[in-house]
Write a structure and sequence with these properties.
The chain has about 280 residues and is an alpha/beta fold. The chain folds into two domains: about 170 residues, NAD(P)-binding Rossmann-like Domain (Rossmann fold, 3-Layer(aba) Sandwich), CATH 3.40.50.720; about 110 residues, 6-phosphogluconate dehydrogenase C-terminal fold, CATH 1.10.3660. Helix content is about 50%, strand content about 10%. The protein has an eight-stranded mixed sheet, sandwiched between helices. Helix 5 links the parallel strand 5 and strand 6.
């Protein structure tokens, strides 16, 4: 197995597989020598290279665990160096652009399978990797063709996902990107925007941060996330994110107009209903 990118997700995958008793040889790839040394010291990988091409040589499974732009760059770059039997997958937070690109390069020899583990932390980097990161998480798979789901390589990967405590679900790339625009990307931008607004107010001397309690800290937790990751996500899901932002702005304008009447109660009740549904899913 080759893991290209040894950050939070790539490192956590290596640690999780080792914890689950994976007996295969895991080769990692990272540009920085310090990252490679740390991954070896943690036991996330058995071997590490600076160049992805060296890491994927002879691999049965290749996991592209880099930001989205690097995934798009690596798809054509690595394809000539992969054995026909290989399965290539990724962990990108957007899927349509990646799968469209992969469909032009990969048929069944080797095969590409889009992937997105719905797990993570607000802080990235190998230093935050966790062998238990995927336990109880959903892991979205977006096959290029429906019939690919029956391929033995895909079935083996689903079993591998289950071994680290995650639950595989299947989606088409377009539906995935619409859903995560509302459920993942919008919360991130809301958190970052709110934190940025309060920072501006605080810098102007208009707010005392000493009054920030757990509610504000909870809502702005995602604001710790790095721009380097979210830049690519916003660039590859722009239309869906804009649609979600427009809907949120309309919702906030509605709330603004009804701060003094019972319509506001209806918003709270709808919010409680959603929270109940999420608790049932957990």
């Amino acid at each position: 197995m080759a893991i290209v990118g040894l950050g939070l997700l790539g490192g956590s995958l290596g640690l999780a597989l080792k914890k689950a008793g994976f007996a295969g040889h895991i080769v990692g790839s990272a540009r920085r020598a310090e990252t490679r040394a740390q991954a070896l010291a943690l036991g996330a990988v058995d071997e590490a290279h600076a160049e992805p091409i060296e890491a994927v040589h002879g691999a049965d499974l290749v996991i592209l665990a880099t930001p989205v732009a690097a995934i798009l760059d690596n798809l054509p770059r690595l394809q000539p160096h992969l054995p026909p039997r290989a399965l290539v997958t990724d962990v990108g937070s957007t899927k349509r652009r990646i799968c469209e690109h992969a469909a032009k390069l990969y048929d069944q020899r080797p095969m590409f399978l889009g992937g997105h583990p719905m797990a993570g932390k607000e802080r990235s980097g190998l230093e935050n990797a966790d062998a238990r990161l995927f336990e109880g998480a959903r892991y979205v798979l977006t096959p290029l063709k429906p019939e690919h789901s029956g391929d033995l390589r895909v079935q083996a990967f689903r079993a591998l996902i289950a071994s680290i405590g995650a639950r595989a679900i299947t989606s088409d790339p377009a539906s995935h990107d619409v859903a995560v625009a509302y459920l993942s990307h919008l919360p991130q931008l809301l958190s970052s925007g709110l934190a940025g607004l309060v920072e501006e107010k605080n810098a102007a001397g208009g707010l005392s941060l000493e009054l920030a309690a757990t509610g504000f800290r909870d809502v702005t937790r995602l604001a710790d996330s790095p721009y380097s990751v979210w830049r690519d996500i916003c660039l590859t899901n722009t239309e869906n994110i804009q649609m979600a932002l427009d809907a949120l702005i309309q919702k906030m304008e509605f709330i603004k107009l009804h701060l003094g009447d019972r319509e506001l109660e209806h918003e709270f009740l709808a919010a409680h209903s959603l929270r109940d549904k999420l608790r049932e899913l957990s």
